[in-house]
Amino acid sequence: MAKDKKAKKKASKKRRQDDVASVDEHVLDRLYVVIDSRKGADPDTSYTARLFSRGRAQIAKKLGEEAVEALIEGIKGDRPKLVAESADLLYHLLTLWAATSVKPKAVWTELARREGLSGIAEKASRKR
Length: 128
Known about the structure:
The protein has 128 residues and is an all-alpha fold. The chain has a single domain, classed as Helix Hairpins. 81% of the residues lie in helices and 0% in strands. It is built from seven helices and no strands. Helix 2 (27-37) crosses helix 5. 12% of the residues are buried.
């Protein structure tokens, strides 16, 4: 009976982990859709619309600022702040993609193409 209870508990835990993975699996795709939907929205009521109204150069500048902030927290080793800055960095990267009509699937395809390649080999292939 104890074994049966352990098996059920293990199966339940596995289902919860699978649910979390499926929720998290496409969070960037879902965020991109929300960001892209803010094009043309009221800049007074939407931060994303405000970024779009300021143009690609401003979005890129903000992305750079967030990258530096993530870098600083990475060097410091402050994990909670690095998590927060990483979320900001990804948000601003997706905003830049939307501003330039880059779809996440194009990036995921490129990452999949590089999967299994050494970084050295991949960089060498770009020089050709």
